[in-house]
Design a protein that fits this description.
The chain is α/β, with parallel strands linked by helices. The chain has 11 helices and 12 strands. Helix 2 packs across helix 3. Bound molecules: ligand PBG.
């Protein structure tokens, strides 16, 4: 007559709900992405990503110290160069903004986990992630340049390098170069299953990295494919990746789940710029509740199987969880 099994019993009070919750968020699982450039005293808001900025190194350190106080323990740095060229040579300049930022953060916060994005698109005049010849993005000649950038980041003190270019074989090229140069302990977090996504739009404005011709579909993955993500992740693990990433996160939570179940290795998911701006934009219009939406989105990514989340919400979410 009456239901014997009543799932609602465990939802009656907040503490009962807390007691049986399966997935909890911890600030130590967040990675906070930041944009760093040369000069001093600069903190310029990025129009398409409200609440995110271009920082000069001094202001970057201030922001990360404040984020540390809020509970953030890891950051990911992107460089905004003063000059670009066809090869993207600023990527492996030991005095470039990212390298200076890494050194300054190492000095200010010795325990902070410092991750650097390894790619060429912010540094190339054409905006592609590799060497371009006759309108094509060439794979093998790009590997050596990515390896140089990764070694330069490791030399500056990065704990983790994160190649985001999607060239074939770059994890092996980077691992060999790091080992050869004495950086056997530098971790590789590979953007292993990175899709050609509309959700990178705000980032490309932030990084000034929109391709000047064509698009990234000849190297980033087709959104229709998930078996291929399993193959991509398998290759990166064979080549020496320590952590593998699925990107974007929200439109690819099925891929996060499948990668975790297939390999049982540390899996990262990137809650990208377009996902951030979509949420923040809707909240600004009063269409959704910002704080609840942030925690719900991040919980969904953890529940799908991600061990760590790269997210522009990192600092705010860490504060909310305190
Ligand atoms: C560089 C890179 C991109 C992002 C991270 N690294 C842009 C792209 O591939 O076009 C996107 C990050 C975001 O949208 O938040 N290759």
């Amino acid at each position: 007559m009456f239901p014997a099994v009543r799932p609602r019993r465990l939802r009656r009070t907040r503490l009962l709900r807390d007691l049986v919750r399966e997935t909890a968020l911890h600030p130590s699982d967040f990675v906070y992405p930041l944009f760093v450039r040369h000069d001093r005293g600069i903190k310029t808001e990025i129009a398409a990503m409200p609440g995110n900025y271009h920082f000069s190194v001094d202001r970057l350190v201030e922001e990360v110290q404040a984020a540390w106080e809020d509970g953030v323990r890891a950051v990911l740095l992107f460089g905004i160069p003063d000059r670009k060229d066809a090869e993207g040579s600023e990527a492996w300049n030991d005095e470039a903004a990212v390298q200076l930022g890494v050194r300054a953060l190492r000095a200010a916060l010795p325990d902070l986990v410092v991750i650097t994005d390894v790619c060429l698109c912010e540094y190339t005049s054409h905006g592609h992630c590799g060497v371009v010849r006759e309108g094509r993005v060439l794979n093998d000649p790009t590997l050596e340049l990515l390896a140089r950038a990764a070694v330069s980041h490791a030399r500056a003190g990065a704990d983790i390098v994160a190649p985001s270019d999607m060239m074939d074989g770059r994890v092996r090229a980077i691992r060999e170069a790091l080992d050869r140069e004495g950086f056997a302990d530098t971790v590789i977090l590979s953007y292993a299953a990175k899709y050609a996504s509309a959700f990178y739009g705000p980032f490309r404005e932030a990084a000034g990295s929109a391709p000047q011709f064509g698009d990234r579909r000849s190297y980033q993955m087709d959104p229709g494919n998930a078996d291929e993500a399993i193959r991509e992740v398998g290759l990166d693990l064979e080549e020496g990746a320590d952590i593998v990433m699925v990107k974007p996160a929200l439109a690819y939570l099925d891929v996060v789940r499948r990668v975790k179940e297939a390999y049982r290795v540390p899996v990262a998911a990137y809650n990208v710029s377009g996902e951030y701006s979509m949420l923040v934009g809707a909240a600004e219009r009063g269409w959704i509740e910002r704080e609840r939406a942030i925690l719900e989105v991040l919980t969904s990514i953890r529940r799908a199987g991600a061990d760590l989340i790269l997210t522009y919400h990192a600092r705010e979410a860490a504060r909310l969880l305190r």
